[in-house]
Amino acid sequence: LWRFLQAGVLAGSCYVSWLGVVHLDENRISMDHGVVKSSVVGAGSNASASVADGGDAAPKAAPCVFLPLPPAEQTWAHAVSSWKELRAALEDPRVTAIEGDIRMGRLLSSGGAGEDVPIMAHPPARVSDLSFDAFLMACARQGGKHLKLDFKELEAVAKCLPAVRSLAETLRGNGQAVLLNADVVNGPGRRYGDVPVPAGSFLDVVARLAPGAPLSLGWRVRPGARDSYTEDDARRMRGVYESYAARVGCAAGVVFSVALRLTPQSTGALSTLVSALPSSQLLVWTGAGEPPPPRNTLLRTKTLFQEAGVAGRVGYDCRVAEGLVSGRVNDILVYLFSAVTAALDALRD
Predict the structure, then answer these.
(1) CA dihedral over 30, 85, 101, 158, signed as positive or negative
(2) DSSP secondary structure string for all residues of 148-207
């Protein structure tokens, strides 16, 4: 669908290819199919993480045994979904944190047969050569990089956290942070419908299996929607985190993830959110495969957060288009894609 929309815009506007992209952060490094990114993900003490095989019989981790958010400056290996990408990330001295998407699927080594297991894969992929257990073990053995576990399905959360729980003290000793990430509530452009990882269910599992772990929480959105993060969105997300912190008896910290294209019109509500929670930060992102917006969008966002007095608690994991024309055309493409997918969802409903 992206290619179809691109072809239509190209015919009428002499589209300047968005492949020439400026990676705004100089520490952001291309790495095979992933991208290593440097971004401010939050302030806090050094965190720790290590890995071993875990299971439901693993001893329960004490609340707050996990370290809070890692230091502000991180260089990310993003969307690590294969052995090749993982080895590159572990061996690269510039990489300080690794992010991977987790869902249920099959391993290539099994020939696609057998039962589904947690694998490292970005949707819509359901096959990978890297299982979650192998990912976690390799990262723990290396012992020097923080982890962000991006859960795409609720079933994967319950199956993965026992292993994380069983290694909580080891991970802390390694100086590795483990952030548990999911898009847990509906947000701009996706106000209705089911969320694959609902907030209540996600927090129930985390509080039971990995209490005290820092969270990375996001809204399920369409970046091109003519919408914004509202005060109601901020209040709801604040309630999600405070309920978790109250349940486990400590506030380990939280990163709220927001889409760059939706942020300039939302800085008031988002600034209020982080101001109300001293242990929170924002991470502004552009998605994998998302045509990058104009640089001005990012610069305006930074200025608005600076004026709101929260700039030091906002990080950026973004890429922007090299030229103004290509960035504006990309905005049109993303808007059209959002409009078409919203219409299709409405028809299905």
Answers:
(1) negative
(2) EEEESSHHHHHHHHHHHHHTHHHHHHHT--EEEEEEEEE-TT--SS--SS-HHHHHHHHH
Query: Could you report the per-residue pLDDT of 152-202, keeping only the tens digit for each?
Result: 999 999 999 999 988 888 888 999 999 999 999 999 999 988 999 999 999
CA distance 313 to 123: 30
DSSP type of residue 273: H
Asked if residue 320 lies in contact with residue 295, where contact means CB atoms within 8 angstroms, the answer is yes
**Tokens standing for residue 242:** 């405070």
Q: What distance in Å separates the CA atoms of residue 107 and residue 130, rounded to the nearest whole number?
A: 7
The 10s digit of each residue's pLDDT in 194-247 is 999 999 999 999 999 998 888 999 999 999 999 999 999 999 999 999 988 888
Rounded to an integer, what distance in angstroms lies between the CA atom of residue 104 and that of residue 118? 5
Going by their DSSP bridges, the two strands 280-285 and 254-259 should be labelled as: parallel
Residue type, 254: V
Is beta strand 117-120 parallel, antiparallel or unpaired with respect to 127-128? unpaired
C-alpha 19: how far from its chain's center?
23
pTM of the model: 0.79
